[in-house]
Amino acid sequence: MNFVAYQIAWFACVLGGAHQLPWVGVAVTAVAVAIHLVLVPAPGRDALLILTVAAIGALWDGLLVGLGILEYPSGVVLPWLAPVWIIAMWAGFATTLHVSLRWLLGRWRLATLFGALGGPLAYYAGMRLGAVNFPDPVVALAVLAGGWSILMPLACWIAIKLDFDPPGLGDEVATGP
Question: What pTM, to 2 d.p., does this model score?
Answer without folding.
Answer: 0.90
